[in-house]
Design goal:
Elements lengths: L3 H15 L10 H4 L2 H7 L4 H11 L6 H18 L4 H7 L5 H12 L3 H10 L13 E17 L6 H12 L10 E5 L12 E8 L10 E16 L5 H9 L13 E7 L9 E8 L3
Helix pairs in contact: 3-4, 6-7
Length: 284
């Protein structure tokens, strides 16, 4: 993909800038993350930058959409931590608190106090087990097909059968045991489950037959930290909290999806489930 290295560097810079405490600097959030400034940093024209940013990022978001999504998730984390709204507005680079409040109403369709109540209700207990250090998968490279790339985790059970039957009909199944995945781009701890970018997926040998608009396809590549969760899926939220706390913001490549690989899923007891979580890392 053209300009992949340049765009990857800009994505890393955007993530670091979004998480910066803007109350401690005289710089402007909007100036620092303007299209003009980012294009200059990438040594590209603004037209090429906007075009290749959207082409290189797996969510196919525009620059503005990507920045807005990351910034909103950071705001929600600060609300959940109990920060007051005046401090949050200053920390995330808004001119004043009313500007922050208006953004919350526009994007989340809720008042600040309503969001605060919702996030306090969503209290995830600490993960109850010791987590083994991750293994690092370098230069991962494989193809998947996806189903229901929509908002929300609540996929119907039939989506797994549908995606298998589609792959089988198109002769793109892997030989041997199949690999099933779930993909998410958002933080389930602060985003409502009905608003998360999530899809069911499976590994395939080829994606060229895919023309059906009901199905998508992606190439999964790059470096990943792989953590293993054994047990009930209900513990995955707290598992995510624990493993993401181990990865510095500068190393977490947030434009790529976090992958859930369902190693053992066809069992009677939830305690026997085994899920690997692939966290994308910024490739140096």
């Amino acid at each position: 993909m053209p300009y992949n290295k340049e765009i990857n560097g800009i994505i890393k810079n955007i993530r670091e800038a979004v998480n910066r405490d803007w109350s401690q600097t005289s710089s402007s959030f909007n100036d620092t993350l303007s299209i003009k400034r980012l294009a200059e940093d990438a040594r590209m024209s603004t037209t090429n930058f906007k075009r290749f940013f959207k082409a290189n990022i797996d969510t196919h978001e525009t620059v503005h959409q990507f920045i807005s999504r990351l910034r909103m998730q950071h705001i929600l984390k600060l609300i959940k931590e109990g920060k007051n709204f005046d401090d949050i507005a200053s920390m995330v680079g808004f001119a004043n608190t009313p500007a922050l409040n208006n953004t919350l109403r526009k994007i989340k369709n809720a008042t600040p106090s309503e969001l605060k109540d919702l996030l306090q209700i969503k209290d995830v207990k600490a993960y109850p087990y010791k987590i083994a250090p991750p293994r690092i998968e370098k230069s991962v490279d494989f193809n998947i097909i996806t189903k229901n790339f929509e908002s929300g985790y609540n996929q119907s059970d039939s989506s797994w059968d549908d995606i298998y039957n589609f792959a089988k009909a198109n002769n793109i199944l892997l030989p041997g045991q199949q690999e099933y995945w779930g993909l998410t781009f958002d933080d389930a701890d602060v985003e409502d489950s009905n608003n998360n970018h999530f899809c069911t997926a499976m590994t395939v040998t080829d994606t060229s037959p895919i023309e059906d608009s009901e199905y998508g396809h992606m190439n999964i590549d790059g470096d990943y930290a792989v953590f293993t969760h054994k047990g009930d899926y209900n513990l995955l939220d707290s598992f995510y909290d624990a493993i993401l706390a181990q990865i510095p913001v500068s190393e977490f490549y947030g434009s790529k999806p976090i992958l859930e690989k369902y190693l053992i899923w066809d069992v009677q007891e939830p305690k026997d489930l085994v899920t690997e979580v692939f966290v994308p890392l910024y490739r140096q």
